[in-house]
């Protein structure tokens, strides 16, 4: 009898241990994040985080606390501006430029340490977001260790001095004719995939680096894990075998010009036609009303777009591509963040947060706003005033949305061929439009209509 009880006890213990292992596996699976994929890009919103300026502390940990809030805005990808130590030699301003990197595989101690970064990435993954790092392959800071350890990695002038790209005197240009540099650069990028589990890179001045480097680098990086690659560039050639997304710079500049009364809807239509001829269907463009460069050097959204600001934000979500939120936009930020010194964002919710929340929800959930490699279609709808009134339809399968806006600073009366009963998504009110019925839109008035 004792022998039987002993056997039953052991069996029970083994069973409990087995169940514990199963539970552990299940828990791990629940906490894990599926690798980034083309499907994930279709309805994504990308968020640019300037860690130095995001909070008074200027740390990873301060930003990590707010990651769940970003989920409310529909954010799927978090782009961290450069997190690396900043060179001191020829530094601009008290703190220097994030893009003058002293070491590619170290963390700027002002922001925290590697453990803090891993916590940030893990928190983002648990909240259904991917994290990409800003990468500067074109140049390094003036006291990067490669300058002494590998002087042949740099472009040099007739006197043997490192060459500064453009007028950026705090950095030195790298020489991609050197195969050893190429190998080293890929290795530095691999470090972050393996040691911080990041999901890709946003690459600074990507068009200044040879395309064949990017093509080979991305191929090697994807052997470690699936990644997302964003180029700070507009050139279509970068999208063929390397990058997933480029900047829609011309669209951004056009939005500024329309807001300032210098361009109109006909110019917008021409830009949409240009995109069709320049890019392949699977190419992704990033749409934005601001980013770190625009904010610091060219002015706030209010400065550049004035009363048209919210209209342009909505347009950036509804036009094909992926919309960007630069930190502070969600808090109606109307100041230029200092670039080489400490600054911070006033996190008081105003009119833009609820707008971004609604737009993010629609972008995430309605396939009519898919903007990835199998994007929803874009169809122009004419009106009796094609200079001021923009109307277009986005459609995928059985999903449709209509964007309708007065892109001028005056009240406009117009008619359109559009007819039917719609739901105004932002107000949740029904709207009936009859063919050739006169509609009156106030300056910069817009609607997102769901059939």
Primary descriptors:
451 residues; six-stranded antiparallel beta sheet; TIM Barrel; elongated; alpha/beta; disordered N terminus; 19% strand; Immunoglobulin-like; 35% helix; 2 domains; eight-stranded parallel barrel
Write the layout of secondary structure elements.
Elements (H helix, E strand, L loop, with lengths): L1 H30 L6 H5 L2 E5 L1 H4 L5 H5 L2 H6 L2 E6 L33 H13 L3 E6 L3 E3 L4 H4 L21 E3 L5 H17 L4 E4 L7 H11 L6 E4 L13 E3 L1 H11 L5 H14 L5 E4 L4 H7 L2 H5 L3 H10 L3 E5 L25 H14 L11 E4 L8 E8 L2 E8 L5 E3 L5 E5 L4 E5 L5 E3 L4 E5 L1
Parallel strand pairs: 1-2, 1-10, 2-3, 3-6, 6-7, 7-8, 8-9, 9-10
Antiparallel strand pairs: 4-5, 11-12, 12-13, 13-18, 14-17, 15-16, 15-18
Description of the molecule:
This protein has 451 residues and is of the alpha/beta class. The protein has 2 domains: 34-376, Glycosidases (TIM Barrel), CATH 3.20.20; 389-450, Immunoglobulin-like. Helix content is 35%, strand content 19%. It is built from 15 helices and 18 strands. The chain has helices spanning 2-31, 38-42, 51-54, 60-64, 67-72, 114-126, 146-149, 179-195, 211-221, 249-259, 265-278, 292-298, 301-305, 309-318, 352-365, and strands at residues 45-49, 75-80, 130-135, 139-141, 171-173, 200-203, 228-231, 245-247, 284-287, 322-326, 377-380, 389-396, 399-406, 412-414, 420-424, 429-433, 439-441, 446-450. Strands 1-2-3-6-7-8-9-10 form an 8-stranded parallel β-barrel. α8 packs parallel to α9, α10 (249-259) runs antiparallel to α11 (265-278) and α14 (309-318) packs parallel to α15 (352-365). The model is unreliable at 1-31 (pLDDT under 50).
